[in-house]
Amino acid sequence: MRLTKQRKAISDYFAANPEHAFSVEMIYNQIGDGKMNLSTVYRNVDRLAQLGLLARTLMKNTAYYYVKKEEHQHFMICTSCFKMFPINHVIEEIIPIAIGQTDFKALAHDIVIYGICRRCQLHNEKSKVSF
């Protein structure tokens, strides 16, 4: 993959914010500055996701992208500030138990819990988001 100026700007943005998830519009608003249009950001983010560098989750019918880690991850995402909180240690203990009790053959899984982090709760009680 050729590293264009646009891809570098998007990659640098994610590298500077590895613990957050962003919609394409959020990325565009932060780094677009007239040098690239929204469709360029969409294409480049989609390409980075296809290459396995970014992962995607859906919140309220909007795709949010985040840096994909080498190991499989489970996390909570604050729907106010979009910070991600890993919860791997808890989930990895529960999954084998649930599978064993149901005689289920798991092929893949993604677990994301959406809510409001402590900081955002304290900052703004009106930040509740309904799904």
TrEMBL record:
SUPFAM superfamilies according to UniProt = Winged helix' DNA-binding domain
Q: Does the keyword Oxidoreductase apply?
A: no
InterPro entries (alphabetical): FUR, Fur_C, WH-like_DNA-bd_sf, WH_DNA-bd_sf
Q: Which residues form a coiled coil?
A: none
Cofactor note text = Binds 1 Mn(2+) or Fe(2+) ion per subunit.
Q: Which residues hold Fe cation?
A: H72, E92, H109
> Which keywords are on file for this protein?
DNA-binding, Iron, Metal-binding, Repressor, Transcription, Transcription regulation, Zinc
Names of required cofactors: Mn(2+); Fe(2+); Zn(2+)
Q: Which GO terms describe its molecular function?
A: DNA-binding transcription factor activity; transcription cis-regulatory region binding; zinc ion binding
Gene3D superfamilies per record: 3.30.1490.190, Winged helix-like DNA-binding domain superfamily/Winged helix DNA-binding domain
Pfam families under this entry?
Answer: FUR
Q: Which positions does UniProt annotate for Zn(2+) binding? A: C78, C81, C117, C120
Q: Name one GO biological process term.
A: negative regulation of DNA-templated transcription
Name the family the entry cites: Belongs to the Fur family.
What PANTHER family does the annotation carry? FERRIC UPTAKE REGULATION PROTEIN, ZINC UPTAKE REGULATION PROTEIN
Listed name of the protein: Ferric uptake regulation protein
